[in-house]
Amino acid sequence: MRMKSIKSVPQFDFIREERWKKLTKKEFSDLMSYKGTYSHLLKSQQRVEELKKKYEGEIQKEMDKQNNYYTNLMKVSKKIDYLRDKYNISCSIHIGKKYKKKDGSVSQYYSISINRRNRTTLSCNLGTDIHIKSTLKEFYKNDKRVLNQIKEMGWLEWLKNECNDKKTLGGIKWNCEDIIDENKDKVDGTYFSLEKILPQ
Fold this sequence. Notes:
Elements: H1 3-8, H2 25-79, H3 81-87, E1 89-100, E2 106-116, E3 122-128, H4 129-139, H5 144-153, H6 155-162, H7 171-183, H8 194-197
Helix pairs in contact: 5-6
């Protein structure tokens, strides 16, 4: 019997009690085990119904409270919308096309985009992969912890994680927030060079 069926019709009385004596010991034992479990189920279902009746009023009160909280949140939300416009930003690293240099080596440019709610997106070129790797190495030459992170994760993944504070890093995102806050409406893409956005 499937779980769906047993929940809708958990019957055990398909065998009349008169026939129980004709069952084998194992069949009778299994049937009684099922009967006992079914009895516990009925008691539990009855208890649930009792609790529903007992706490129905309290549950409704809490639901009403929640509805009031949502209404108040909507009212207060309008007052802090400007803070969302100011601080609700997201950063992302973009990978440019590969290009072949005169010496035959292949390189690639990378950039960062800073998206702001209801504002123009800001972007800045971070340079080639070669430039980024050498800058990271020099910038963090005295910080073995960060250098180890970059080595383990890879420099590109490390940069992406630093743009996302949900992954417990987020230093680049925080620096971008500070740059925007400090420079207000004057800010443009040139403010977000690699050296400026790297976390100390």
